Amino acid sequence: xxxxxxxxxxxxxxxxxxxxxxxxxxxxxxxxxxxxxxxxxxxxxxxxxxxxxxxxxxxxxxxxxxxxxxxxxxxxxxxxxxxxxxxxxxxxxxxxxxxxxxxxxxxxxxxxxxxxxxxxxxxxxxxxxxxxxxxxxxxxxxxxxxxxxxxxxxxxxxxxxxxxxxxxxxxxxxxxxxxxxx
Length: 182
What we know:
Blueprint: E1 39-44, E2 51-56, E3 66-67, E4 69-72, H1 79-91, E5 93-94, E6 97-107, E7 110-121, E8 124-125, E9 137-142, H2 144-153, H3 159-171
Parallel strand pairs: 1-7
Antiparallel strand pairs: 1-4, 2-3, 2-9, 5-8, 6-7
């Protein structure tokens, strides 16, 4: 887990963390206050190091066609638990190896909107997905190189997905440092 500087979110350091939140070891020492707009994104990698992408098959994909597993948090919901549950329910994949990549405010004008970013390493299929509609989207595995090209050419057109993919490429222990695309 990444170490956080205590000064980064000093105004949140004194908050109580509820005892019933599982996986507190996987989450930073501060727990951002809940707002009705908190969300999470995650990028999953299989044992070969390929990234799981959800490709939009509809013609109305205005903001790129590649998406990541994501969700809006319910009141009191732990972001890592929500990400783990959504990955399993939506794709049927699970992982015991998670990388927390940070929690960030949406922007300076909305300091109460928190995005939480994760990577799931070495995911394995454990069940059939519950909420997956293959008429609207498909799951595909892409290489690190293809993921980098998608960041540049607009296939990943939603900024928070691009940030998640970029952080995963940068911080993942399985992600070798790849030279600039030529």
